[in-house]
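Reposting from the mailing list since nobody answered there.

I have sequence plus structure tokens for a pair of proteins and want to know whether others read the tokens the same way I do. The first protein:
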Amino acid sequence: MKNRTMPDPNKIYPIPGVKTLTYIKPTIKNPNIIVGEFTYFGDTDFESHVSHHYDFCEDKLIIGKFCQIAKGVNFIMNGANHQMNAVSTFPFYILEGWNQQAPSLSEMPIKGNTVVGNDVWIGQNTTILPGVKIGDGAIIGANSTVGSNVPPYTIVAGNPAKEIRKRFDDEMIKILEKLQWWNLDVDEINKLIPILTCSDLEKIKNKLKTFLVK
């Protein structure tokens, strides 16, 4: 407990005196954007970075706990997609004066919800495209465009984003997926911080095994 202050997921500005980093959850007004506790954005007004999010598309943006989302990250939702199974992609139906009825959702390239797992780090100026699923513990390099799913604990970067490497070996990934530390209470997480922030992975792997069998 730093400065005898408990972490508060409902506080918009988690760093005293800093107004350029915000916990996202307490700022959200759109019911179709769901964000877990302690996920932060390196800027203000997160919802303005979620574009083409129209109710008729019925898609949600779902982000887990303890994610780190840098300044300039943008989420493009399914409303940005145009009909691609016809001769023209031009959206006559949304513009005044053109004689086209809106196509059904089944005719549109709707890719479902956009889902970001827990403890995901998304680098500055990254764009996440509609329907992408990003697994727990993934890292997205700055200036990336993510159009494909990202497995848990994987580093991707580029345009289009491609896998660089796994963060850990398969055994460690399985341990972390079982641990799901982000679902522990604040006191338990505080006790685990020395383990969660240690770079001696073999040592930590053994400690986590012990923790899981308690």
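The second protein, same order (residues first, tokens after):
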Amino acid sequence: MADPIKVLLVDDHQVVRRGLRTFLEVQDDIEVVGEASDGAEGVARAEELKPDVVLMDVKMPGMDGVEALRKLRELDNPARVLIVTSFTEQRTVVPALRAGAAGYVYKDVDPDALAGAIRSVHAGHILLQPEVAGALLSQEEANSGQGRGGSLTEREREVLGLIADGRSNREIARVLVLSEKTVKTHVSNILMKLDLADRTQAALWAVRHGVTG
């Protein structure tokens, strides 16, 4: 049996953390390894505990979720971050995705859907609701040049299409019969050539410009 997915809970409301822990602890393939009550503590705990997935609130006192995401990126922490937000905070989701979040769920999410979301982002997928994807695509259209895709090699376009399909580097390597190291190099080249910050932006660029796996 595979090792359980290690999850860190970051939320300033203890009752929310307790509820999340109570549900997640009954999942055979998920293990809650720690909690934090604000962004700064969340970053420190993520560095200490090395979780696979961080459930991160957006609005917290002190360091908020977006700032914490940026800090984790600066530290090159490999944890996948799943934003947990309320429906009324949708406008804060786009900056969080820009900062490196792998997706988001609403605080009233069905428990089984939450577990599914954790498994999905852990597998390398990106979780976006249509309305947020639309907002991100609009920004990409405004900020990115149409002609950048012409600088991609055929192999890079193949990799980009698979990123758009939500495939992890390991899955891309298997599909294209490449090493993971080679795939990582292709991903880095894609981000550099398209002047994008992360896989989320790359996936959205691919969708906008019709590049599919």
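Reply #1 (J.P.):
I read it the same way you do. Residues 19 and 77 are 26 Å apart (CA to CA).
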